[in-house]
Structure formats: structure tokens, C-alpha cells
Amino acid sequence: MEAVAYGTPLDTSCGALLIAGVDPSTGKPSVSSPLIVVSSDGGKTGIAIVLMTSAKPGQYLLDLTCAGAQGCVQKYARVDLFYRDGTHEQVISDATANCKGSIPVHIGGSFGRKPLIGELVGKENRSMHAWVGDAFVECALTEENSRTLMYSARCLLQ
CA 62, CA 59: separation in Å to the nearest integer? Predict the structure, then answer.
């Protein structure tokens, strides 16, 4: 176990952070991070985050599910990522229009978003804004959520 700088212990071993499963869209085996739920009201509003491998080697999926949004996710929804070092990044998802709050962001490989996986590996996320219609759902990640996402990304790249 590695001691987190904030005083909270976090097991950063890949065995503790990666979960073997099945990609829901393809039915093929995949590996994912633990589900990270960021909500201050028991899940009525907030974002659930999972980072997983894709069916093709070198491709990954950052899957966001928004709760409590007014409106539906539009095709090519925008996601703003804010890092603890003060930097910011905006990505456009591969979402199809849906009213389920689902916003997939494919990264790596032929998707041309390799820098994003590099950012997730090297930086801690402070917060995310996922745009749903004309509004956004915002979540502020705890230090533990942030480190879990960062170390999970590192493990997926190994």
C-alpha cells in the first residue's frame, strides 16, 4: 500500500484497481477501473466514471453516466476536464443522442486522442463538466477518486 499525500491510504496495485469484465457494447472481454461515483446527494445528481479497455488494442473508453441532468445528451457531447495542477482540457465525446445520460469518450489508437490517456495517466482530475443539452453536470472528485482514476489509467496502459 502506498500512502497518499493527503493521508488517505490507497492501494495502487493493478490487481486492486482493475476489474475483468465484458464490454457492454461488444460483448467482448474488457478490463476496467472501479466505478467511481461522484455525488453529494446519494446519486440523484452527479457523474459515474469508468475507464476501460476497448475491443481494439491501444484504445480506451472513458465512460461517463450523468444523473440529475435536465435534458438529453446531444450527439458529440462536450466534456471539460479540470486537473489539480490548474490545467484544463476539453474533449468531444462519441455520444449518440440519448436521454440516459451516457457520454462515452473513446481515447487512444485510431481515435486520435492519445494525449488524453497521457493526461489521465500523469495528472489528477479535480473536476469534470459533462454537457447535457445546454447545461452541464459538474462533479468535483475527491483526492481518492482522482488518484483511483489516475492509477487505473496507468494500470490499463501496462
Answer: 10
